[in-house]
Amino acid sequence: MTIAGQIEQLIESLEGAATCDDCITDRLNLSVRSQANAVTRDLGDDKRFDRGKAPCSLCGSTKTVVRHRIKPA
């Protein structure tokens, strides 16, 4: 699976919880944060995801985060 695919899968698995690039980098053991940042910037343009400034659900820091939009049941 590609790095982009791994990042997308991680964000979706968090079920709408906001996650920063640093935490994505740590969770997936990526070599540099810029790998996560490049993917999350692109996901910000995808209607299935939101990207903006908010507290990260994993580290608690207020940063630019990405979250998967959960469709109402």
List the helices and strands and how they pair.
Blueprint (H helix, E strand, L loop, with lengths): L2 H11 L5 E2 H7 L5 H11 L5 E7 L6 E7 L5
Antiparallel strand pairs: 1-3, 2-3
How would you sum up this structure, described in words?
By secondary structure, this protein is an alpha+beta fold. The chain has a single domain (3-68), classed as Arc Repressor Mutant, subunit A (Orthogonal Bundle). Helix content is 40%, strand content 22%. It contains 3 helices and 3 strands. It has helices at 3-13, 21-27, 33-43, and strands spanning 19-20, 49-55, 62-68. A 3-stranded antiparallel β-sheet has the order 1-3-2. Helix 1 (3-13) packs across helix 3 (33-43) and helix 2 (21-27) packs across helix 3. The longest helix has 11 residues, at 3-13. It is globular. The protein starts with a helix and ends in a 5-residue tail after the last strand. The model has no long low-confidence stretch (mean pLDDT 93).
Summary of the model, kept short:
This protein is α+β, with helices and mostly antiparallel strands and 73 residues long.
- Percent strand equals 15-25%
Order of helices and strands: HEHHEE
Helix vs. strand class? alpha+beta
The portion of residues assigned to helices is 25-40%
Can you name the CATH architecture?
A: Orthogonal Bundle
Query: Spatial order of the strands in the main sheet?
Result: 1-3-2
Number of strands: 3
Domains, number: 1
